[in-house]
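To illustrate the input format used throughout this study, we show a single complete record. The first block contains the structure-token representation of the backbone; no residue identities are included at this stage. The design step must infer an amino acid for every position from geometry alone.
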């Protein structure tokens, strides 16, 4: 039986990053909650997972990895390919330049297609998250 996890929390964790050295998102296998965690300093948030907690029971916390940059690049390329005319040309050109992620975002705004881009990206992110969850043996649900 698959472990049920809140879909919106899992998608946010995959989107926001979880493979950093000093912080990330983890699935608490005891509570089925997605928790943000990191170093022990500076935050009074009771919800924040600390390294101390993770060291006490390392088998309890499953790291949630973020979307690999190559996947994000592929989404930008796929979006650019479905654009027409000058928009398509400009978006494909920025993907060949240095710092393509930042330049792509700037160009999307300059061209006025940011709403379409973010809708496209959200749909791709959801598909990615569902596949990743399945690999982890998780079932994403709207409510627990």
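Output of the design step:
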């Amino acid at each position: 039986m698959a472990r049920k996890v809140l879909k919106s929390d899992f998608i946010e964790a995959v989107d926001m990053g979880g493979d950093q050295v000093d912080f990330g998102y983890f699935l608490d296998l005891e509570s089925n909650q997605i928790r943000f965690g990191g170093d022990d300093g500076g935050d009074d948030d009771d919800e924040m997972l600390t390294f101390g907690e993770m060291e006490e029971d390392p088998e309890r916390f499953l790291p949630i990895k973020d979307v690999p940059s190559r996947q994000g690049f592929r989404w930008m390329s796929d979006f650019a390919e479905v654009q027409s005319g000058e928009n398509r040309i400009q978006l494909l050109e920025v993907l060949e330049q240095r710092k393509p992620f930042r330049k792509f975002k700037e160009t999307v705004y300059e061209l006025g297609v940011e709403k379409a881009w973010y809708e496209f990206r959200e749909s791709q992110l959801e598909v990615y998250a569902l596949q990743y969850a399945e690999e982890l043996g998780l079932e994403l649900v709207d409510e627990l």
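Structural context for interpreting the output: The helical segments are 7-16, 51-56, 69-82, 85-94, 100-111, 114-135. Residues 18-64 form one domain.
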